[in-house]
Amino acid sequence: MNSIKNVLSKELYRIFKDKKMIFSIFILPVILIVGMITLMGSIAKNASNDVQKHIPTVYIQNAPSDFKSFISSVDTNLNDITFLNASEDTSSIQNDILKEKVDLLLVFPDSFSKAIIDLSGSKLPSVLVYYNPSVDYSASAESTYVNSYLEAYRQNLLVAKYGNINAVKLFDVQQSIIQDEAKATGKMLGSLLPYFITIMLFAGAMGLGIDTIAGEKERGTMASLLMTPVKRTSIVMGKLLALMILSVVSATVYVITMVVAIPIMSKSMGSGMDLSGLSIRFTSTQIFELVVVMIGVVFLYVALIGVVAVFAKSVKEASTYIMPLYIIIIATGMMTMYGTSVTNVGLYAIPLYNSSIALKAILSGDITMMQFIFTTISTFGAAGVVTLCIGKAFNSEKVMFNA
Amino acid sequence: MRMGVKMIQIENLTKIYKLSKKQMLKAKTKKQIKIAVDGVSFEAKNGEIFGLLGPNGAGKTTTLRCIATLLKPTDGSVKVSGFDTISDSIEVRKNIGFLTNEIKLDPQFSAKYLFNFFGKMHGVEQAVLDKRREELFLYFGIKEFEDKKIDELSTGMKQKAAIAVALVHDPEVIIFDEPTVGLDIITARSVTDYLKALKERGKLVIISTHIMSEAEKLCDRLAIIIDGKKIAEGTVKEILESTNTGDLEDAFFQLYKDNHKEEK
Question: Chains A, B: CB contacts under 8 A, how many?
Fold first, then answer.
């Protein structure tokens, strides 16, 4: 027990006495996240400003005279609206929409004004709208003309025809939202946080994990540690505990930075990222479940990093071997970003995958006791087995001394 | 300390490495195994400096590593202070200090930190630890550099710090693989002088070397190892008499000629 503590405190000393380490654990995350959000926000803002500033190039064929006068009263940018006669061919304009030279084409049917007064025929007259939804300018013009201008024009006509618009509207629709705020917040958190947390936990321990095992082997400093009269498993546990602490600290810094910085940044830039619902309220059961699952995840991650590092002959080799594992971790995290909580209990027995789906289910309050127990047992079990493997490897002269 | 206690007993020590394809290619051999040590037996007592003399690749380092519990014998047994290196490896490690050029100190830490760390790993009490650090650091002249990172020390200073750290628990048996390789003559002299001082204090010092003069001057008794086999053992005088030669170098070549077979 004492020797575990000795090894642990030496490893922690190594981490927290190193300026580079302090920088990469505490300062880099803040710079990275704030920088990323600033960049993303300003790009999004620029793009939306640009669309707002853009004056759409619009062609309107066969427009009734009252629509012309309506448009001139609501749209001040008449310069870019071209009115066409019914006889003109619009195929070149349609082609220009595809080529992004023209944003919108409206085609009114022949004798539109007459057709809307005499509705005895079975067919309603249609206004054809041509636009290109994959071009922001065109999509924005379509939305303005269809939802604002044409709709307002229709209402004007209705008022003119019937006097009271309610005679034709008959009823309104009013929506009121009924949802559990905590669950909604949890759902959003549940889709985002497990992904980030799993990756940060792994990434946080990866560098030092390789250095503290493969690096010590390569530098020849491991042998002096193995010459001490303590159990090899104590050395392994000391090193893994230090990695777990580092992993938790670095992931915590990332998560706190994200939770604190994102709302502040998005508010100051008005980029429309709505995180106002980010009020985190957990029940004590949720907190307990979170803590247990997180400790299991961290234990499993550092054990996996350790087992890769111990079998690698050098730091370089370990860095190569760790990549597939890292990709698996990222993939399991991504699987939980979308969709609802997994209900199949059996899936909660698969290590690595289960911790991601369990985190998601805990955050949205969906996890059952059975799922929680399955996750806990399989995660800690897997971590224990991997740790035993590392212990075995530490006792193997072939692995430790390449003999 | 009683004199003449058998600190190390080696019986029929054999170490066979299995070679990987890559290693076979490198060694230019078609054999899948390499017999590094082949049935070596000897005993060494406290209060002496015992030397393993032989050319590179003869099996000296492998023998020392087996004594130090870092390697497990394929056959035979090694006992240190009566403890078996396999079944009682932790007891053995309490009694030995092992030094080699390949074992290095962590470059990110200071000599003082590492001395204290390894002291605690050996269960040495803090008061004893402080006293011993004072003594050893003073002797090897690292007192004023004790707070510097190992990384910042010169090669000789690093080696001296490594020696001090290896002796932190005042072991009964000191195993030293090629003690003076890579050291300047002044540092080498202070190391060999210290080994003699350890012997005077009743410790067993066991070294490996391929330097004849070092073996002649330093060692009370020698075992000559060629191709993994022990071919002679005794004091320098005894070896000279048995080979009928005038100095250790002549004796060694005589033995080498008689015993070395070129591998086919």
Answer: 70
